[in-house]
Amino acid sequence: MEFGIAAHCMKATSWDDLCNQLEYRNIRRLQLSLTKLTQLTPLKAGAFSPGLASYIGNRLRKSNIHISVLGCYIDPVHPDERVRRAQLALFKEHMLYAKFLEADVVATETGVLHNTDDREAAYRILLDSMQDLMMHAEKLGIVIAIEGASVHTVHSPLQMRRLLDDIPSPNLGVIFDHVGFLNKSNYQDQFTIIEESFRLFGDKIYAVHLKDFMADAASFRTVLAGQGMTDMKHLLSLIQQKKPHIDVILERATEEQYVEIMAALQHHL
């Protein structure tokens, strides 16, 4: 496994500052979500260009930093079609310039359930949006990676498998985040959900988001990896066994916390 960090969780004030901090801590894998890095590159639809993407990509490569995930977190099931189409256009723009960044995948979540009484309607909208994106991904040779969550349209491992079956493209993969599928009602089934995920779509997992959780019957909250109720030894052993050398992004961790988390995780590796 190769561990990394999300750039938008860092305190960098410039691209040089970002790269210097990563080099100092020997962090070589990165999730880059440009729309969240407003202090570095205010990015709105239409602002991308080959020049901007090349500048960012070249600066990261100079420091031997690789982009595991190019994040473009949109809502592909937004009920307002104009809003939804605008967000899909932004995602397509990220795909177009991903090659200049040499990013492994372009990633999104599957959208908040705006009407929780009609999951199937949301799924049909998601399918339409993803089919639109996949046409562009296949033409460009780009891999789209989707991430599930219990409150989103793809809310379970079974639903993830359904989407992968409905869009049988080699250009569609998954970012696996076990905490995303958990909530206060099912957290005690974490082993089943983790193992079911690897059974149903393990071959499609292209990157991992690693965080942790604390929960009881009344509440559920996410915490940094290794600071909650996840059996990290079991999870990391499974990842190592099933997906050797995969990139693992420590979610919500600052650059300082990354060092602390990695020191603690060494006991489980």
What descriptive keywords fit this protein?
269 residues; alpha/beta; 10 strands
Q: What share of the residues lie within helices?
A: 40-55%
Mean pLDDT: 94
The total count of helices amounts to 8
Please tell me how large the radius of gyration is: 18 Å
Major beta-sheet overview: 8 strands, parallel, barrel
Structural class: alpha/beta
Measured by DSSP, the beta-strand proportion falls in 15-25%
Could you give the order of strands across the largest sheet?
A: 1-2-3-4-5-6-7-10
Number of strands: 10
Order of helices and strands: EHEHEHEHEHEHEEEHEH
List unreliable stretches of 5+ residues.
Answer: none
Structural notes for this entry:
With 269 residues, the chain is an alpha/beta fold. The chain is 41% helix and 17% strand. The protein has 8 helices and 10 strands. Strands 1-2-3-4-5-6-7-10 form an 8-stranded parallel beta barrel, surrounded by 4 helices. The longest helix is centred in the middle third of the chain and has 22 residues, at 119-140. The termini are close together.
